[in-house]
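Exam revision sheet. Question 4 asks you to relate a sequence to its structure. Input first:
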Amino acid sequence: MAAKKPKKPASMTEALGIKNIFGNEKLIFVIGIVILAVAIYFLIAFISFFTTGEADQSLIESPRMNDMLNLKREFQNSCGSLGAHTAYFFIKQCFGLSAFFIPAFLVILAFNTMKAYSVNIWKWFMCMMLIMVWGAVTTAKFLSPFFTDSCFNPGGDHGLFVCERIENFIGTPGLTAILLITALAFLTYISAETIYFIRRIVNPTNY
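Answer key, structure tokens:
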């Protein structure tokens, strides 16, 4: 009787065992828990940044050896030196107040991974990323006068950079028009009710 030939893996993922790993429901659930924990950690670090960001900023911008270890507990952020650096990067250097969309998305991703809820994760990612970038530019333009004494810009360094570049090119009216058109286009994509709402404003008699 002829010996049976060993069955070859159908794909690279099966050969590496990756398919079996990601098909394990328990492992997927644990990954969801980890993502949720990261989201909560980010949220606490971001909130703590509002009261400790100015004190931690000098340590971050002028680092010394072993500062990251925080052996002397010089960092005042509730989440330690890692939390201080994380909040500084996302709030100060990137998106300002809009950075809170990052832990919000991670919560949605965690619940989807845990299969507590079923959502289109890519649609949520694209929508929240667009809102975050739009919010950073908008807050950098319109809320900056209220943050003159703050250690960060409400739109973050990235939002302020984009705001200034666009404004230098097409002026304040052009920037405002782009922000308004982008917002209306996004709201129209989310719900057709936006069209009827605008029509009621333009022509309240017939609508």
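Marking note for examiners. The chain has eight helices and no strands.
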